[in-house]
Structure formats: structure tokens, C-alpha cells
Amino acid sequence: MNLRMPGSAPFHMKVAFQAFPGVELLKKPQILTGDGVYEETWLSPRQWRREVTLGSYHAVEVQSDRVRKMQASSDYEPSRVLMLLEGLLNPIPRNYVSPDLIDIHQGWNMKRGTAGKLEYMRISSTYVPGERGHTFITTYLFLANGLLVQSNESGFMTGWQDDIVFAGKVVPKHFAVQGAGQNLLTAEVKVEAAGTADPAVFELPGEQAEPGMTLRPLHFFEAKRIADLGSGFTYLGYAPSANSFRGVLDRHGVLREVEVTTAEDLEELRKVLDGFRHEPYHPAEIDGSPCEFAMKFLY
Predict the structure, then answer these.
(1) What pTM did the predictor assign?
(2) What is the spatial order of strands in the sheet that 255-262 belongs to?
(3) Per-residue pLDDT reduced to its tens digit, 238-254
(4) Domains defined for the chain, CATH in brackets
(5) 245 touches 206 (CB < 8 A)
């Protein structure tokens, strides 16, 4: 399913997506929503261009040989943009197939099942990291022919549908992210051969981008200083709970676009979220550069 492996066929991708609001428990919602467009031209791992527009936000990131550059209307990437790119770029995060990237022991279980006449394989991981006492649960569903159709992490479910084959790789034409019982993102994907691309599209003025200035969603095994985010964080990671929520920590240590994943008591959780939103944190870092980081929290 990975279109971007070395030696893969050059492609042009266009994605029309719609971003929906979440459960924020605020009078004035903060999550950027509406119709958006993502375009990517990929020739090789060292030559590509990504461009995304959602409402007032617009960004372009290019890689030309060894130099990566980025321009954006804001130094903060909206939550739904990160959610879109996670579904496009990281259907299965690298640490799940390269255990040396994370120091938490994971035990995976496989179970066959059927939905009507459709056979599938459920692969899930349930583990408790260290002495924290909370359970991580991650689930992937594959069809009998090996196609990934669904993932579920802490109540955020992504589903991929209507697969086509492009240059020997499987590309879902549609995917959606759901949370708190409602759609958060839907996307329609079109992919075609890149053809002859103008070299100028892979160039941007200005200096090389800092490591933390990127559209690519970052994960725990890449970002540093996550443990220094502040005493207000009861728990960081992927965990089902009576009360859990998702937030995006920006490059200045401000928690943005906080939304509820699950809630046993909405009024109690509203008070907790107010405290989380206004507490200052140290930003996450990658290679010493402040970076944006999306995460889920347990309360």
C-alpha cells in the first residue's frame, strides 16, 4: 500500500476532503472545518511536493534532492489536516512494523472473523506500559486478501474503502475518520501517473525548513521531550477511558483544537479541558527543533 517506497512509480494525487467539527465543549468552536484540497506530486523519495488548503490555511512543502522547504499561512497545522495526512501517509505507523523504534513491549493477537460473507483478520495489541497502569489498545482489520480496511486507536476509527490498483500498489479511493460517534473527516482520493513534471514545482524560495516545520504528522518515537509537557498531563498515549480527549500541541507549547473522544461526565470533563487548554507546556521537539504534535489523553 506504500506508494512512496524507493523505486515506486511517480504519481500525482489529488484529495478532496471535508473536515467536520468534534465535541469541544466550547461556545465558540476552535476546530477548523469545511471543504479542503490536498495535492501531491511524487517522483522519488528525494523529489516531491505536497500542498494543502483548508479554509484560511494553505501550505506547500517540497523536497528537491537533499533540501526540504516549506511555506505556510500559519506555523500551526490544523488538527484535521494532520488527521488527513495520517490516513494518507501512515496507515500503519512505522513503530508497529519496526519494534526497535519504541521501547514499549507490545503483544499482538490475531483473530479471524466474518461480517456477513466477508472474511477478515483482526490484529490487535493490548499492553500496559511500565507502571502507568493504563491499557493501550490498537486494532487493525484486514480482509482475507491482505487489504487493510480499518484501524481503531482509542475510539478514533479510520476506514479505507473502494480500493484500486495503481502501479502494483493498492490505493483506497475513499477513507473516513470517526470519533465520539460522528464523522470527523471524509476524503475522496484520486491518483494517476505523474507524467512529465516541471522541475520548478519542486522549488520554493527561502531557506531550508527546520526539522520541526513539516506537514508530516510526527509520532512518539520521533519527537523528544514528550515527558516534559507538564504535570497537568495525567497520561499521554493511546488509551480507552471513561474520559479521554485529543489535542494538538503547537510549536509554542499551546494546546489547540482539543476535542472529546469519550466522556462519562461531560460537565466534569468540561472543567478539566479548560485547565488543559490554558496551561503552558514545553513544545515537543525533533532534532532540537520545536514541532507540532497530535496526541490523545486519558483523564
Answers:
(1) 0.90
(2) 255-262, 244-249, 293-298
(3) 444 467 788 999 999 88
(4) 226-298 (3.30.2420)
(5) no
- Secondary structure E strands in the chain: 11-19, 34-44, 47-54, 57-64, 67-72, 108-115, 118-127, 136-143, 148-153, 156-166, 169-179, 182-193, 244-249, 255-262, 284-286, 289-291, 293-298
Torsion of CA 257, 263, 265, 271, to 10 degrees: -20
Q: What angle do CA 146, 151, 153 make, to 5 degrees?
A: 150
Residues listed for the chain: 299
Per-residue pLDDT reduced to its tens digit, 107-137: 789 999 998 888 999 999 875 544 444 556 7
Task: Map residue 213 onto helix, strand or coil.
Answer: coil
Contact 270, 276 (CB under 8 A): no
Give bridge partners of residue 185 from the DSSP assignment.
19, 177
